[in-house]
Amino acid sequence: MPRKKYSEDTIIQILEDAEGGRDSVRQVVRKHGISEPTFYRWKAEFAGLDAAQVRSLRRLKHENLRLRRAVEDRGLEAKVLRDLTAGTWKGTTTESEAR
Prior knowledge:
Elements: H1 8-19, H2 25-32, H3 36-46, H4 51-86, H5 95-98
Helix pairs in contact: 1-3, 1-4
């Protein structure tokens, strides 16, 4: 089943529907087609925020992930360069070199 992307406005509206007491959590998740664990994860993460704050939080998380990956790549490059300069690089070899 493909994963749905919910907008920040939709997430806030779903949380407000449940908090307003109009419907139970079970009715809200059924109405919007999400699971209860998803609802409670959103509630823990986004409760008390408005849509603009949720957008900002998502943007920051995405940027943080991108930066972490960049740091990991730099660390790997540095290790390869250290191994190359120390003469301990075990890169790929051709069949003629392996004999």
